[in-house]
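Continuing the batch. This is chain 6 of the set; chains 1 through 5 are on the previous pages. Same settings as before, nothing changed between runs. Recording input and output for traceability.
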Amino acid sequence: MQSRTPISCLLVANRGEIAVRVMRTCKSLGIRTVAVYSEADAAALHVRMADDAVPVGPAPVGESYLVVENILRAAQDSGAQAIHPGYGLLSENAGFARACAAAGLIFVGPSPEAIEIMADKALAKRAMIAAGVPCVPGYQGEEQSDERMIAEASEVGFPLLVKAAAGGGGRGMRLVQRAEELASAIALARSEAENAFGSGALLLEPATPQARHVEIQVFADQHGQVLHLGERDCSVQRRHQKVVEESPGPQLNPELRERMGDAAVAAACAVDYVGAGTVEFLLDASGEFYFLEMNTRLQVEHPVTELVTGLDLVALQLAVAQGEALKLQQADIVLRGHAMEVRLYAEDAQMDFLPAAGPVLHWQAPEGDGIRVDSGVVSGVEIAPFYDPLVAKIIAHGANREQARQRLVAALRDTALFGVATNRDFLLDVLQQSNFVAGSATTAFIGETWPGGYQNSAQPPLDYAVAAVLQYLLGREQACSEAVDVNRELLDWSSAGDL
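Output for chain 6:
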């Protein structure tokens, strides 16, 4: 248990919108913030927002944001007492959590032991089975030979998923429809897992294409209090990466919510969890649910929970890290209204979601009733090719699901980013599909809606009109630049008079 040490200076070991998000709460609490930055991020928003900023190396993450020694040195040089890891990067690195403790720094997160158990999907699954948490049937054994995996696959049945035991984000995962595809899928998944996570351990699970992905936000303090803060439905996914997140889940009733919440609390208790965590479940059409994994950090989609509960999850993280007891009981957690979030990425959706990089010539975030924008960019910065291309999270809250959806659609229409391609039109298309509007989208939604890849089905007429005007103006400027003498006062002048 960490001692009760008030945090007056916090280093945020991350970048982009999550670093800005953490700093926003710190400023409201009067906590001094320290940013770390790579050479590519010297002018980034999180650097501008922090009270102090320390360079940690060249642009690649392996030479900057992932170098533990550089992060710890930055904390010590800046006088930080604690480190918030955000999500991604070092957030689920047990070695980093141990290094923070060894350096006398508070790690705003769970214990290294809890991180280690939950970071290994096979180990986590075995722990959850022992704790009585419902788990997807399959193979998660220590014997990892190809022969054993192929033999176990016949027991699991097809279609099945070959999954990396370490890591996440869809990497090291293969869908296998037939037995003859299995050997190749194992080899590819193992190779990808070794390259991405340093471990080629795999597990096998039956594929359930028409299921829902529902996760439960849990919170635990150092005094044994463990709560859940309701669910988030994250079923709309592309290659196992979330596209839309919402709370409450459109198909959950109070009884199912209570059962899933109890299971999530049991999962947290099984590993003596402390802080913010998310227990992810697969929910099938019959209402049965199964443990998938636990993310031992703050989730990207935490704003939807904040909007329906009225809680600041970063503030709760800091309070727990300081040794404070949660001032909440389970009965205090009430979900009010509905919240929905989309992730705006710098990517070309019509080119197989190819990541984009380049200057942000102009960024216009939407405003309006019930709209929240968590962004890591401003006009004039560069979107570097070294990092995740997430630009902003756009979240809407309403009295009910349909109001939240309509507000989110309107907000996306008011969103503009010039300089690089974004997935804005794709998100608008998703939110207006009939299955999504009805609340019946499953994890198969995107693949079924666009089986051949996404193509924008309806470009707004105004876009064509604007493009035509821009083409005319650019052509005119080109012609003027090549002319010997042009009287600019006569440009756009006509003697035809009013028609």
